[in-house]
Amino acid sequence: MNLFQSVTSALDNTLAKDPSAVIFGEDVGFGGVFRCTVGLRDKYGKDRVFNTPLCEQGIVGFGIGVAVAGATAIAEIQFADYIYPAFDQIVNEAAKYRYRSGNLFDCGSLTIRAPWGCVGHGALYHSQSPEAFFVHCPGIKVVIPRSPIEAKGLLLSCIEDKNPCIFFEPKILYRSAVEQVPVEPYYIPLSQAEILQEGSDVTLVAWGTQVSTVYLV
């Protein structure tokens, strides 16, 4: 599988396993810009995979409500560059929901997906990497995979995690990275670094598309 197919596989696994799971966002019904949800509406129905208006704040706000009600919410922001209108919903609502209610309520079953990073022809509004705005915010987890195998395992872990997660998908890897990805579900732990090469002279830390470049160094 390439990376976008591994994402599709993870979403397929989730919809099959969890009858409360729903996927929504701009154009996800027909598969989305990068085809990550292709075929899922036909397989699971328009009540579980559906389009939303072009309103990122509304998409995330709706996702928070779905998660608080007890369902599994998987929201797609069409490009990470357009996540900023949803900033208030993510930082001031989703991230703080558990804390402000004294652990009575939470929206931990919310996962926000977004294509991320430079692709070479994305110009100003389809090339951004906004993760730094969110990694400093307590209450949410930010995940960026480096490969198809990592993408599926980490996305499934985000969906199962008890905290709201933002899952940024390196769009330049959607079709350029190919690996033998298991069809069945599997999980890769969050908040745990993957060590690709051990040594004692220097430590290089990277995420997403940077990993392969740093590894070559």
TrEMBL record:
Gene Ontology biological process: branched-chain amino acid catabolic process; response to nutrient
Boundaries of every Transketolase-like pyrimidine-binding domain copy: 1-176
Keywords: Oxidoreductase
Keyword Oxidoreductase among UniProt keywords: yes
Protein origin, superkingdom: Eukaryota
UniProt EC number: 1.2.4.4
Pfam families xref list: Transket_pyr
UniProt cross-references to SUPFAM superfamilies, sorted A to Z: Thiamin diphosphate-binding fold (THDP-binding) (SSF52518), TK C-terminal domain-like (SSF52922)
Cofactor(s) recorded in Swiss-Prot or TrEMBL: thiamine diphosphate
Listed GO MF terms: branched-chain 2-oxo acid dehydrogenase activity
Gene3D superfamilies: 3.40.50.920, 3.40.50.970
Reactions that this protein is recorded to catalyse: N(6)-[(R)-lipoyl]-L-lysyl-[protein] + 3-methyl-2-oxobutanoate + H(+) = N(6)-[(R)-S(8)-2-methylpropanoyldihydrolipoyl]-L-lysyl-[protein] + CO2
This protein's name: 3-methyl-2-oxobutanoate dehydrogenase (2-methylpropanoyl-transferring)
Organism: Latimeria chalumnae (Coelacanth)
Gene name linked to the record: BCKDHB
